[in-house]
TrEMBL record:
InterPro entries membership: IS30-like_HTH
A UniProt-annotated Pfam family: HTH_38
Transposase IS30-like HTH domain ranges (all copies): 3-40
Protein's UniProt name: Helix-turn-helix domain-containing protein
Length: 69
């Protein structure tokens, strides 16, 4: 998922738009949007932000695949 899409998800979540509508606008499945929000929400306030999502994704990608569980 591209950073631009993550920022769009963050804005629309803040406006209270449902996941299905966001998915339709981005041409993605609702499960993809839901997973993106769930995996990349900030743990302390459970808010999803595109910038923190990019950092989380980047950190996960640096872990060798044999180490991940």
């Amino acid at each position: 998922m591209m950073f631009r899409e993550r920022e769009e998800i963050a804005l629309q979540c803040a406006w209270g738009i449902c996941i299905r509508v966001i998915a339709r606008k981005l041409g993605r499945t609702p499960s993809t949007i839901s997973r993106e929000i769930r995996r990349n929400s900030a743990p302390r306030n459970s808010r999803w932000m595109g910038q923190s999502a990019a950092v989380c994704r980047s950190a996960r990608s640096r872990i060798p695949s044999g180490v991940r569980r």
